[in-house]
Amino acid sequence: MEENKPLQQTPSKAPKPKAPVKKRSGVLLETDYIIKNNETRVRLQMKGKRLYYLYDRYEPYFYLDAPASKIPELMKSSVLHRGLRITAAHMEEVEREVEGKKRKVLKVYAHHPPEVPDLRTAFKDYHAWEYNIIFGRRYMMDKGLAPLSRLTYERQGKRLLKILKTAEANPTFRTMTFDIETYNPLGAPRAAQDPCIMISYATSMHDGKVLTYKSIKDRPFVKDCISEKGMIEEFGRVMDKVDPEVLSGYNSTQFDLPYLQTRADHLRTPLHLGRDGSTFKVRKRGIREVARVQGRIYVDLFPLLRFLSFIGAVKVSRFTLENAYAELTGHKSVLKEQMDRLDIYKMWDDPHRVGPLADYAQGDAHITWELTQLVLPLELEMARVTRLSPSDVVGATSSQLVESLLMCEAVARGAIVPNKPTDEEAKAREMNPIEGAYVKTPSPGIYENMVVFDFRGLYPSIIIAHNIDPFTLNCSDCKGDGYISPTGAHFCKKHRGLIPDVLAKVMKARAELKDKLKKLEPGSDEYRAMFARQQTLKILANSYYGYLAFSRSRYYSRSAAESVTAWGRQFIMQTGEKAEKAGFKLLYQDTDSCFLLMGDKKKEDVLEWMKHVNADLPHGMELELEAFYPRGVFVSKKVTGAVGTNSDSAAKTTGAKKKYALIDDKGRIKIRGFELVRRDWSVIARETQRRVLEAILKDGSKERAVAIVREVVAEIRAGKMPLEKFAIETQLVKPLDKYEVMSPELAAALKHNKRGKGERMGQGSVVRYVITRSGGGHGTELSAHSGKEEKKKTGAKPAAKPTKSASKSKSSKTSVSDKAELLEYAKDYDPDYYIDHQIIPTVLKILKELGVEEEDLKRGGKQSGLESFF
DNA sequence: GCGAGCAGCGTACCT
DNA sequence: ACAGGTACGCTGCTCGCG
């Protein structure tokens, strides 16, 4: 194929190179391109002993749906690009797979990569594909290269002549972490005026220094650089000496790097970070900014962690450095007690506290270093698997992860990559959602001897088993002889679709890794690395269905996606029916899981039944035993509407879905959906609910559960608890002026912003607030309505009432929002609110199953006179 | 003018 | 800017009552 002779593609005016041809190998990190002497060169960043670059020539191109006969005419078409008139470099007819069918299309070459999108508009009459693929990625896709793979190649000087082979690689990197401290008399430091007072760095958990410009005794790790300027310059010398391959920081793109740059500019000294002595560069990628440091792999752990948390590779409740460190390593932060960052400038000014400040600075660098060791392998693995470059992986959406691999595999099989949908198409798809999974309503109650099964990788296995793909759908080749889904769609049995093919490869790779994993020692570095890899593959495999149904997907297919979920519902419901036929009581099901009551059945019966079910499933699909649970709790959902205080009959209680608590045969508790797993409930409510559930599951003691609640209620009344326990966390996902109704978290954030202290809260802020007795005294009524007049489509009532603003008259009632204050401002909490709206409802739901009433909790009730508590 | 009822907003969760 | 299914608190409207 034409791709295999790239050097002939470029009209060559190359002089005879003098350098000898050498065979070498190195690990590919990423690619980009440069234009030199009017020639486009792909630049491959490699790692051997050190990082280095290789260059290769490659021509940019895209595809056009036009016949070869049109080439002469099309070659004359031109278009303006950056003020200059451009034409195609050349064209050729090639055979490609388009929407599952082989046919001929035109491959149109451009002179330079940036011309491609514009050039495409010169041929508006014809459909075009692949005109907006970043050139570096284009190169890797076409050459079948993956980041972090080892290339063995021939080179001539820095020029790559030929790739001889590729292999897996797992390089290690010399890593340096850095962190700065700044003088902050006003709270937030102002880079223009407030100096940087310390730069700390770490190259391992034991090595590293704190650069500063005060002499600090008894701390050998501190280096006094005399002045701020001297400190910044010393940092540059350290960069040269250590010469790290990976440079990492925490939120350093947003804070440390720009701050240092401003200080360096101010002091008229260069900031020396890159291997060539350059500083950093910031590239806008969509909404977010990505920094790069020449010749090094720059890693900002903050966005990286957010990304890994988003895709589910790690779980972090709050993204502060200390919290992420504590949760991911399981170590307590080395920094003894939480230091108040607002105090930093005071510590600097106080001769007795500048030492501890240096300790703090060093500690930060060290924990950041340790965190880097932990999460960098995940990022690299994600890059390896998805074939996105490590820096592209951070901040990629899960659709991009899936899409990247699909595109690579499409190219590899000679298929053209479909275009992204237009905004209109995407909107239309969104308007028409696809029916999803089945969830059975459980009967509330406390149960004994349950067994839980789930389908291993339900959607991926359905897709593979039935060859579900947009282009195997209703194929003309095997009309009537495909797999027929419950929706009636059929899928080709003859040619494997792209998505099932890629998915099968991913699943196979994962199965192999899991085999290898069994032979390794848990806890070892190798085990951790291997585990991360298989976890990555699992995350990826589970994303394919979502991508098929994603409105902006290149491979969207409503029919295909509907078939996946329809089959899913069919399999899980059939499994439920089989369980009931076999004499189990079917308690609950959600998507791919199945909760059964064993009754008198033994574990062997259960396994026997599972074998029987599996025998009937298509190849690749499997029902797995998740665990046995001696005891479990399902609760009724809160009844909305007619709650007639004492009409038991009226309030027909139904079980709540997606909420349960189980204890397995080893005493481990598994809780899903309950308030205690939600951060938008107060710590005290969550803690109390957990204790109640434990009392019931572990001890089976209703009395203990009730006693716990009474005790907590009494303590709340007594007002002896720390205020933090009453904090509720809620994220503001929209820009503040876009909210239609006032909520407690919004009210707290607005009040805070009005004070004008500290950082303003806005989109994305997580509000930690407390419901106080009275609110903060800001009597101002807050309105969520930001000027937009219209809205309120209340049941299409034309309603003659122009005096809408009259309704917001000072109500005598104070709402919850009125009383919401950020934790930092709250002076008290409202005991009634916390008892009646947080504690009682959360525990009552559970205790009702045991016949406990609200009164029993609040005032002791008849069964046990515990009035003495109050 | 007031309270109850209820729809809709909004968030976080489950698989 | 991966999917859909779900629970549930709060706000703010409507409506019935007086």
Descriptive tags:
disordered C terminus; 870 residues; DNA-binding; 6-stranded mixed sheet; alpha+beta
Could you please describe the fold and organization of this structure?
- This protein has 870 residues and is of the alpha+beta class.
- Helix content is 34%, strand content 22%.
- The strands form eight sheets. It has a six-stranded mixed β-sheet with strand order 15-14-13-12-16-19, sandwiched between helices. Strands 23-24-20-25-26-27 form a six-stranded antiparallel β-sheet. A five-stranded antiparallel β-sheet has the order 3-2-1-10-11, covered by helices on one side.
- The longest helix is centred in the middle third of the chain and has 33 residues.
- The protein is globular.
- The N terminus and C terminus are likely disordered.
Uncertain runs are 1-10, 641-651, 777-781, 785-811, 861-870
The dominant shape is: globular
Total helices: the number is 24
Strand content: 15-25%
Q: Order of strands across the biggest sheet?
A: 15-14-13-12-16-19
Could you give a short account of the major beta sheet?
6 strands, mixed
Rounded to an integer in angstroms, the radius of gyration calculated over CA atoms is: 32 Å
Structural class: alpha+beta
Total beta-strand segments: 30
Report the span from N to C terminus.
85 Å
Percentage of helical residues? 25-40%
- What is the arithmetic mean of pLDDT? 88
